[in-house]
Design brief:
The chain is α/β, with parallel strands linked by helices. It has helices spanning 21-29, 64-69, 76-88, 122-139, 149-156, 162-165, 187-192, 196-214; strands spanning 48-49, 55-59, 95-99, 106-107, 116-117, 143-147, 170-174, 177-184. The strands form 2 sheets. A 6-stranded mixed sheet has the order 1-3-2-6-8-7.
Length: 215
């Protein structure tokens, strides 16, 4: 019988190096085959930012632009996030941004058609968990800003509901570390909102809670 492909195990653990800092993690993540998502994605999109950031922002997964450029939060949602962070009093240049899942998951009606974002499954989020754990261990942020339901479920479990806890300060054990977290919506949800101005105001209010924690 043929050996099973590594992605069938649904864990990134074998690909995560024991040392090497963020640069070593980024190099290793580029070769990750810990779940089947790597097959269709253009490339791994690893986190980036200040290696000693006081705040880590965790989103869901790369989008179309991120997948093409290989960098997190470079599309419209990332631009909105930077604007809101600056307004809230958090310097985007001093943050570390990453995603719970490092490969773009999408559906596509046919080649050359637009790639439509598809939410990752709990199994895919769990498979990618070792990368997020490694990033947390290196950066050691004082605060994690949880961007949206998928990131919340990846960090806090499947019962997480962003609407119930957004804009509050949580203290939980995450990957063996005691962490403080402020959940909010994903910036893409602001862009999709019918009343974008109101949605942005709520998002900004949540980020101001995070800024007060860091003050």
């Amino acid at each position: 019988m043929a050996d099973k492909a590594p992605e069938d195990a649904y864990t990134a653990e074998p690909f995560v190096p024991a040392r090497g800092g963020l640069a070593g993690l980024r190099r290793a993540a580029a070769e990750c085959r810990g779940c089947p998502l790597h097959r269709d994605a253009t490339q791994t999109v690893f986190g980036e930012g200040d290696a000693h950031a006081r705040v880590m922002l965790v989103g869901e997964q790369p989008g179309d632009q991120e997948d093409r450029q290989g960098r997190p939060f470079v599309g419209p949602a990332g631009k909105l996030l930077d604007r809101a962070l600056a307004e809230a009093g958090i310097d985007p240049a001093e943050a570390y941004v990453t995603n719970a899942v490092k490969h773009f998951k999408f559906t596509q009606a046919e080649p050359r058609k637009r790639r439509i974002h598809k939410a990752p499954s709990l199994r895919e989020m769990t498979a990618c968990g070792p990368w997020l754990a490694a990033e947390l261990a290196v950066v050691e942020p004082e605060l994690i800003v949880v961007l949206g339901a998928t990131a919340g479920k990846a960090l806090l479990g499947s019962s997480f509901r962003v609407t119930q806890v957004r804009g509050t300060v949580l203290e939980e054990e995450i990957h063996g570390r005691r962490e403080r977290l402020v959940p909010t919506v994903h910036p893409s949800a602001v862009l999709r909102a019918d009343d974008r101005e109101s949605a942005y105001g709520g998002f900004l209010s949540d980020l101001k809670v995070a800024a007060r924690v860091l003050a």
